[in-house]
Amino acid sequence: MAQESKTTEDHADDVARVTVMLALRLEEEAGVLDLLLEEAVRGRPHGEIWKQLHQAAVRDDMLPELAFAYEQLARGRRLKGAPPAVQAEVLMHAASFFVEVFGDGEGATELLERVLALAPGHPRRSPPSSGCSSPRSPGCRSPTSTSPPRSA
Q1: Rg (CA), the chain
Q2: 30, 57, 53, 69: which is closest to 140 by C-alpha?
Q3: Helix 84-96 vs helix 63-75: angle between axes, to the nearest 10 degrees?
Q4: How deeply is 78 buried, as exposed, middle or buried, from its count of CB atoms within 10 A (0-12, 13-18, 19+)?
Q5: Which are the contacts of 29, defined by CB distance < 8 A and separation ≥ 6?
Q6: Dihedral sign for Cα atoms in the order 25, 137, 133, 79
Q7: DSSP 3-state helix, strand, coil percentages of the chain (rounded to 5)?
Q8: What pTM value is reported for the model?
Q9: 127 and 95 in contact (C-beta within 8 Å)?
Q10: At 119, is the pLDDT very low, low, confident or very high (cuts 50, 70, 90)?
Q11: Does position 3 have pLDDT exceeding 60, yes or no?
Q12: Is residue 83 classed exposed, middle or buried when 0-12, 13-18 and 19+ CB atoms within 10 A define those classes?
């Protein structure tokens, strides 16, 4: 999805396509994360799209897939090649997903430890809100839940 030779207009088109896709059905979660990383490197953090991504994973029952994509991103060369502040911000979004949506506090702790190592003075000491304050929040569910999400 995201490539180095794209123009600013191409990036805007990709962001628009991702926004529409997240509104319909989550697909290519790893590609979405790559695009969000690339946008963050370019100084466009798109906080609202991170929230939409987490909400779409809940809605579309794609929590394990998004968790796996986050793990791959966190271990990958693309993230490690980004500036430390961008790495920290992306890892904060991952930690938010793991603790607030996926219900994996241990996984979130590992990510937050990396944030502190990268940016000891990071302005946020806790994960950003993903729109799901816990797996039991309205519109969210635990990763083991088989019932549909509750509507707000």
Answers
A1: 15
A2: 57
A3: 160
A4: middle
A5: 53, 57, 62, 65, 66, 69
A6: negative
A7: 60, 0, 40
A8: 0.74
A9: yes
A10: confident
A11: no
A12: exposed
Pair 142, 105: CB distance under 8 Å: no
Amino acid letter for position 142: S
The 3-state DSSP class for residue 67 equals: helix
- Both tokens of 27, joined, read 């697909």
Torsion of CA 149, 21, 92, 63, to 10 degrees: 40
Distance CA 8, CA 15 (A): 11
The dihedrals phi and psi of 17, each to the nearest 5 degrees, come to -65, -40
Residue recorded with tokens 């929230």: 51
Name residue, tokens 């969210």. 140
